Amino acid sequence: MSQQKIIGIDLGTTNSCVAVIEGGKPVVIPNSEGQATTPSVVAFTEKGERQVGVTAKRQAIKNPARTVQSIKRHMGSTYWIEIGKDTYSPEQISAYVLQKLKAQAEAHLNERVTKAIITVPAYFDDAQRLATRDAGEIAGLEVARIINEPTACALAYGFKTFKKESTFVIFDFGGGTFDVTILQLDEQVLQVKSTNGDNHLGGDDFDQRIIDWLRKQFKTVNNVDLIVDATTQQRLKEAAERAKIELSGRDSTEIQLPFLAYSDGGPLHLETNLSRNEFNRISLDLVDAVAQPIKIALADAKLAPEQIDNVIMVGGTTRIPAVQQFIRSFFQKEPLRSVNPDEAVALGAAIQGGIITGEIQDVLLLDVLPMALGIEGPAGSVVKIFGRNTAIPASKTKVFTTAVENQSKVQVHVVQGEGDKVADNKSLSRFDLKDIPPAPAGGPKIEVTFDVDVDGIFSCTAKDTKSGKVLSVELKRTNGLSREQLEQLAEKARIQAEKERLEQERQAAIIMAESTLSEAERTLQRYPGASGEGQVREIMFRLKHSMESLETVLIEELTEKLEMSLMKCIRG
């Protein structure tokens, strides 16, 4: 029996993509609409029905208050979405997108899928990575690995693209995040040297600049401020995104938004032209913002721009001409774009899955920790445990002691970031070293081992050096879901997915039944008084009645009986 497939998923801010290894090569699995990418959009109808992907995006203007977009920007935070009487975490919303991709893969492979490689921005911190893994668990997926999007992109380009010894940059600019990663290839070893980026810089920000510009245009034309409710905001967002895309291939674009607002004099419209030059002007600072992370990444790797052999651009935002021109000027070379920037990350994730299953061999991938990780020290200072760009997996041990006599526990506060003060970093976890044996202050010596796994997620173990006793370490994450919440949401999502699957089967059975009924009507008209007509009409009556029920099996059985009766009727 062949080993179960591990799918590769690019869980994007704007769009997501799933791929798998087939015949030794990665292939993108299209969705039910035949598209390579699926909008990372989730919507809820007034009846409580859930829509994901293309259908959710199509209804966004009519149902903006119950439509969730760009949730990736809130991963690893305490942000919750209120939809009617219900609340949803970012992990839940992301899980719904993952479930859609999982079902898509299962339909394509005709087998159950339980494992996945999920990609994240290289600059995602521990909390965001953990939230992504939790989303996978809620969706019913075992997350075999979390890998960085730029690293996945490098895998997608394949080693044949580069010399056996080469250095290259992955410039990953998506809908919500920006990463720059510098890698070195030595024979079949792909090693990340450094990474940097901005988790709040992406295509959404370029869209917002156009939205702001449109509001100014509206005021200029109509001499009134545009009052933006949820529906108007969605219309502006879709118009801005469409204009941004069109300006990648032309010098100007026309934007028409009729009935955008109303006044005492009647409806107010907006018709205007946005030129590429104007778009470049209003978004210049966003393009310039990518320079600093690139310079930091180069400095960390101890490289100059001219020492880079290849530049690879990935992510939809890299289609913006001004972004492309910036990269050409900075590195003084033409970027490689031989792989579709919307598909490269998912393809690379699938390759990583193939490495784990053994379908792809002779590839060693070495990644790094994107940001420093440390603990709170005296007076709110930070004691660094791991510096940024530390090769992972990694492990370090520190010795702790007590401050007062007979102290039974010591609290440890873990933070992540580049600041020298706790307040300038992200709080990840607090935990207590418990059950310390009674002793004078400074007597006990507690060894705490900090580990960062290949996914960039940390954990801790501790022991008393004198007795050798392992101490209890219960990580209390500052953000994210508890184990109990995670299990409850996973079960809820499983039940919902099964309910949706059964409804899809029922709808498919109904469509087939309706088609067979129509064929039966036509057949009886062509062969009036045919032998067996009574039996056909009896089955037709029962089938019509069964379609009002929820019994899919009964509908399928009666449809099959009707088809057989029709054949007998025709043959006489």
Give the overall pLDDT as a whole number. 88
Q: Biggest sheet, in brief?
A: 6 strands, mixed
Radius of gyration: 28 Å
**Termini distance?**
48 Å
* Helix/strand structural class: alpha+beta
Number of helices: 14
User: Any idea what the shape is?
Assistant: globular
- The counted number of beta strands is 28
Return residue spans where pLDDT drops below 50 for at least 5 consecutive residues: none
How helical, in percent, are the residues? Answer: 25-40%
Portion in beta strands: 25-35%
Chart the SSEs and their pairings.
Blueprint lengths: L5 E5 L4 E8 L2 E4 L9 E2 L2 E3 L5 E3 L1 H5 L8 E2 L12 E3 L2 E3 L1 H20 L5 E6 L5 H13 L3 E7 H9 L7 E9 L4 E9 L2 E10 L4 H20 L7 H17 L5 E12 L2 E10 H7 L1 H5 L2 H11 L8 E5 L6 H11 L12 H14 L6 E5 L4 E4 L5 E5 L4 E2 L1 E7 L9 E7 L9 E8 L12 E7 L5 E7 L5 E2 L4 E2 L5 H44 L6 H14 L5 H20 L1
Parallel strand pairs: 1-10, 10-11, 12-17, 14-18
Antiparallel strand pairs: 1-2, 2-3, 2-4, 5-6, 5-7, 8-9, 12-13, 13-14, 15-16, 18-21, 19-20, 19-23, 22-25, 23-24, 24-28, 25-26, 26-27
Helix pairs in contact: 2-3, 4-11, 5-6, 12-13, 12-14, 13-14
